[in-house]
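Input.
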Amino acid sequence: MTIPTSSVIGKFSFEYQEEVLANTALTDKKLIIGVPKEDFDKEKRVPLTPNTVQFLVENGISVLIESEAGLASRFSDIEFSEAGAKIVKKAKEVYTADILLKIAPPNKEEIALLRKNQVLISSLNLKTLNKSFFEVLAEKKVTAIALEYISDENKENPIVELMSEIIGKVAINIVSNFLMKKKGTLIGGIPGTPPTNIIIIGAGATAKSTVNAAIKQGANVQVYDNSISRLKKLHDSFDQNIFTSILHIPKLLGEISRADVIIGAISDYNEYHNYIVPKETIRELKKDSLIIDLSIDQGLCFETSKLTDFNNPSFEKFGVTHYGVPNISSMAPRSASYVLGDIFIQQFSNFQNYGNINHFLKKDENFRNGLYFYSGVLVNKQIGELFDLPTKDINLILTAF
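Output.
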């Protein structure tokens, strides 16, 4: 059988040769899923809960979990062990699994532990990655699936949708804490004091959750987006009227100067050359105002934004506080982990119907939508264009099976 493989020798290129997929055709042995411990300074969620582990084990799947992987989400090694997982002390033991399941994309040290032909399931966070990340995946012939690209029967991205619910609520908690600490005020004010003016750039799932949390606390909210249909869908989802407007940059920049809080929650950032709000406008914002860039891992809404982490989540520029943590759903790690665990119960239930990763990817379009590498071949056109890498059509590749 002739299948595509990749080589990284100087320039990223593809060649064809005879090869058997040793670890992507998992038919002759028990499937093993490995869950490594995340770097808690950057990621506190864990992809499996004890309930999910129990389900997987009862359905013939072995689970390896690195010791203390669930610590930040308040899941103990004992709970995972009682659910049927094997607890291992060293990360390299987890990386012997057929499928590696984690939240954050692997860092340089973790990539070094990846085996040839391994299956990697993690988030992608494109803004945090570089070209060499993908070149190593190609060299090791990894099959990689991005959590945020996996879809469901409604053609939506369930992990994105459900994490967005958490992100919106956490974002407004950040706003509330900021206002009380910095200004001694409440979001909604009280009789005799005005409510907080919040501008939200974007009208997708994250924006909807943010709007919902903000208006419940009495904020005055304005929403801008470049899609009329998204704005209408957002507007119709609330009983009360909220201000919505098409994303006309001059109008937006004029309104921003009166805002107390500006939240970036838009993902199709390429139209705006990686930022929508220039630093000249940010320089004119109210002093002690707040910017939260929820799109920081996808692209910059604000020219002055930069990635931050939980140890140093914010910084000041022009007297404006900027918040740029890319994965704030991780601030509610236990809730987020329950959501992820439930989704993986469904995904691996589907896998059991096929029992073979090649057949699974071929037949399950929803899971296949998350695929960006197949046995070292880049199959996501967007990533290829972003990092100047060649791509292949996954549908043509899978016709071999």
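The first helix runs from residue 50 to 58.
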